[in-house]
Amino acid sequence: MPQVNKIRSARPGKLGGNTAPPSPARLRAALTVFFALDGFLFAGWVVRIPAIKHQTGASASTLGLALLGVSAGAVITMMLTGRLCRRYGSHGVTVACGVLLSLSIALPAQMGSALTLGLVLLLFGAAYGGLNVAMNSAAVDLIAALRRPVMPSFHAAFSFGGMAGAGLGGLVAGSLSPAAHLFALTGLGLVVTAATAPALLRAGPPASPAQERPADAPQQPRGMGTHARRIVILFGVIALCTAYGEGALAEWGALHLSQDLGAAPGLAAAGYSVFALTMAIGRLTGTALLERFGQTRTLVAGGATAAAGMLLGALGPAVWLTLLGFAVAGLGLANIFPVAVGRAGALAGAGGVAAASTLGYGGMLLGPPVIGFLADWISLPVALTTVTLLAATAAVLGWTARNVGEHVNG
Which of 21, 156, 218, 353 has the fewest C-beta atoms under 10 angstroms from its C-beta? Predict the structure, then answer.
């Protein structure tokens, strides 16, 4: 009987001995904690941006330039992280990036100018991008061993962590300075990382039955040939299509509700919350959907659902219809990104995760400025229909990739 749950020790001569490696269930729990911590810390920083803008005296344009530091640091680091994971293992890189993210989140609140803010945000973005690639790479290895498509559950943890971080940030914003709040997040992040790290560091990547081989057999690291690279890029574009929608709704959803439909500020702010909540719920059910319908049908149905929901959200004549559209779009987009990244990783390892994540993150960066340009040129409701267009594109591309890696993790 194949040993599906066998775990290879990362350092057989040093961490072996009488210490048993963690079970796959414990390894999954540890990775879930890191996904949730990533979302929690990032949201904690985001909710303090207005206060830090005031603190640095930055204008809207200079703040925008400073915030590009997060994006630039993340994108530059993502491809490098894929190489680090292949060399040192995704578990150790995950822990290292968790420490760096926890430390760097305290720095923005210490800056007194937009220039210095942008510089420290490069470091913060590098840690954020590195952690995303490393923990997704570790998740891909675990999924191969479990032979269950559990990637959406990890991304659900990220979504719920983000909601918790934003909610806590909103509660303490009136009583804690940005410096005190972000310093507290540093302490919390370091404590959580220290408590969770042993489960990762005591284990190497889980071995699926197909990966089992004699101890003296040469290891064959996964790489990307020309064909594999093209398929990974395809999955990366699918991830880009869904991340575009996330970025667009985060930046423009509330403005659409207030400016175009006359919603009160509180109701307008609820637009993205509704979208984020249904996305998190959709990810919680993602494993069941993948096991029942498979990856291709989940991708196609998700893209089609998101396209219909966003068309209603963009062009609906009433606030409640727009909120309903945002909710449906969140459900549709929920599992596209994790499935695309998971399939890229199953095909090409950490390098595939890095490439697909970089393209996907690029979509999140691309969405807000494209929406803004089109809103000035035409109108905001029409500009938001580009989310519909890209969600439909993700559905078509998902169908195109139906014969690639469908046997992997679901």
Answer: 218
CB 12: neighbour CB atoms within 10 A? 11
Rounded Cα distance, 33 and 37, in Å: 6
Please name every residue paired with 206 in a beta bridge, in sequence order, or none if there are none. Answer: 7
State residue 206 phi and psi, 5-degree precision: -60, 145
Q: Which residues contact 382 (CB under 8 A, 6 or more apart)?
A: 314, 374
Contact predicate 304/114, CB 8 Å: no
CA 315 – CA 333 distance, rounded (Å): 19
Contact in structure between 132 and 352 (CB atoms under 8 Å) = no
- Kindly state the tokens that stand for 138: 């570790």
**CA 262 – CA 257 distance, rounded (Å):** 6
Domains of the chain and any CATH numbers: 20-208 (1.20.1250.20), 226-400 (1.20.1250.20)
d(CA 151, CA 5): 17
Report the number of secondary-structure helices (H) and strands (E) in the chain.
Answer: 15, 0
Q: How far is CA 398 from the centre of its chain?
A: 19
391 CB-contact burial (10 Å; exposed 0-12 / middle 13-18 / buried 19+): buried
Residue 258 gets which letter from DSSP?
I
Q: Is the pLDDT of residue 9 over 50?
A: no
Maximum alpha-carbon separation in the chain: 69
Average pLDDT, the chain: 82
- For tokens 């404590």, the residue is 191
At 170, the amino acid letter reads: G
Judge whether 151 and 344 are in contact, CB under 8 Å: no
pLDDT-derived band at 385, boundaries 50, 70, 90: very high
